[in-house]
Amino acid sequence: MELLKERILKDGLVKPGNVLKVDSFLNHQMDIDLINEIGKEFRRRFPSDKITKILTIEASGIGIACIAAQYFNVPVVFAKKSQSINLDGDIYSTKVESFTHKKVYDVILSKKFLDSNDHVLVIDDFLANGCALMGLIDLIHKAGATIEGAGIVIEKGFQQGGDMIREKGIHLESLAIIKSMTDTSLEFE
Predict the structure, then answer these.
(1) Is residue 156 a known part of a binding site?
(2) What is the pLDDT of residue 109?
(3) How far apart are CA 164 and CA 11, in angstroms?
(4) Which residues bind xanthine (predicted)?
(5) Is 130 annotated among the ligand-binding residues?
(6) Which of 173, 20, 132, 86 is nearest to 140 (CA)?
(7) pLDDT at residue number 32
(8) Does 157 carry a binding-site annotation?
(9) Would the pLDDT of 139 be above 70?
(10) In order of start, what are the domains of the chain with their CATH numbers?
(11) Cα 10 vs. chain centroid, distance in angstroms?
């Protein structure tokens, strides 16, 4: 998606440790016009009418998933990284290690929002080592639901996450794949 790549080059900031900051337009402050185009592109890449839910993980994927959902006409469900008093009843749970936060989370999802009748599209902002996406796939499997695919805004192609997901036979669509990144530059596939 050229519009996204151009925006990453213009406003993204590469930091030491293979960190790409896109917080000025994607995951802190959100450029709704850009994210609207991202939603349209996900719909184009996942034309199936079987999709009944979009699943993401808090927090950065929620806005993107919500805007994309209007093109699928389905609800968004997001996995939470912490238990709250508002989350009652039976839950699915899995462990996810965050690349950026260097922390392991117990990720939870209420069983009343995902079941064996659902056909799920996962949407998230980044794919690096694949831990978050694998955790969401684990929740889908625990629910007995069907995964229809995963839509990622930015994939770090030089890390193993994308290859690991593709090797599992999951339909993965990344809108911008970074081939290489140094402390001062990046190159797309």
Answers:
(1) yes
(2) 93
(3) 29
(4) 20, 27, 156
(5) yes
(6) 132
(7) 96
(8) no
(9) yes
(10) 2-180 (3.40.50.2020)
(11) 22
Q: From residue 183, how far is each of 21, 101, 117 by CA, in Å?
A: 12, 19, 45
Query: Tokens representing 2?
Result: 């050229």
If one compares 150 and 16, the residue with the highest pLDDT of the two is 150
Residue corresponding to tokens 């978050």: 132
66 is in an annotated binding site: no
Specify whether the CB–CB gap between 143 and 136 falls below 8 A: no
Per cent of the chain over pLDDT 90 is 77
Answer yes or no: is 121 a known binding residue.
Answer: no
- The C-alpha atoms of residue 90 and residue 83 are separated, in whole angstroms, by 12
36 labeled part of a ligand binding site: no
- CB-neighbour burial class of residue 121 (10 A; exposed 0-12, middle 13-18, buried 19+): buried
pTM recorded for the entire structure: 0.92
Is position 145 annotated in a ligand binding site?
no
Residue 122: closest CA among 101, 104, 102, 143: 143
Cα separation, 133 vs 126, in Å, equals: 9
**Annotated binding residue at 132?**
yes
Name the E strands within 64-163.
76-79, 91-98, 103-110, 119-127, 146-156
Three-class SS of residue 168? coil
Q: Which of 80-89, 121-130, 152-161 has the lowest mean pLDDT?
A: 80-89
Q: Minimum mean pLDDT among 56-65, 67-76, 80-89, 136-145: which range?
A: 80-89
